[in-house]
Design a protein that fits this description.
The chain is mostly helical. The chain has one domain (12-90). 82% of the residues lie in helices and 0% in strands. The protein has helices at 9-37, 40-43, 49-90. Helix 1 (9-37) runs antiparallel to helix 3. The longest helix is centred in the C-terminal third of the chain and has 42 residues, at 49-90. The radius of gyration is 20 Å and the shape is rod-shaped. The chain starts with 8 loop residues before the first helix and ends with a helix.
Length: 91
């Protein structure tokens, strides 16, 4: 027996969650690009301490945002399946 979603609460929650994962994907890509730009191998002999600190910080953000994004793909697929099941049940 399927649970109906008469007021669309599940759809609103899932859209919000998917939006958050989309924003996280953008953060993941941007921190990867910025991390590559501030890498020591790209900068050559220019060795400024705050750039190295920024690089470590960006790679930490990128690492965690990647795993959140990977989990988001799984959760998003599950939410998509649920929405499809709710739509097919209501028709």
């Amino acid at each position: 027996m399927m649970i109906k979603d008469p007021n669309g609460r599940l759809k609103r929650i899932s859209n919000f969650i998917l939006l958050l994962f989309g924003v996280n994907g953008v953060i993941c890509v941007l921190t990867t690009i910025l991390g590559l730009l501030t890498d020591k191998r790209m900068l050559g002999t220019l060795n400024i301490s705050y750039i190295s600190g920024l690089n470590k910080f960006l790679w930490n953000i990128q690492f965690f945002s990647f795993w959140i994004l990977a989990l988001g793909i799984v959760v998003g697929a599950f939410i998509g399946i649920l929405i499809t099941l709710f739509k097919s049940e209501s028709n």
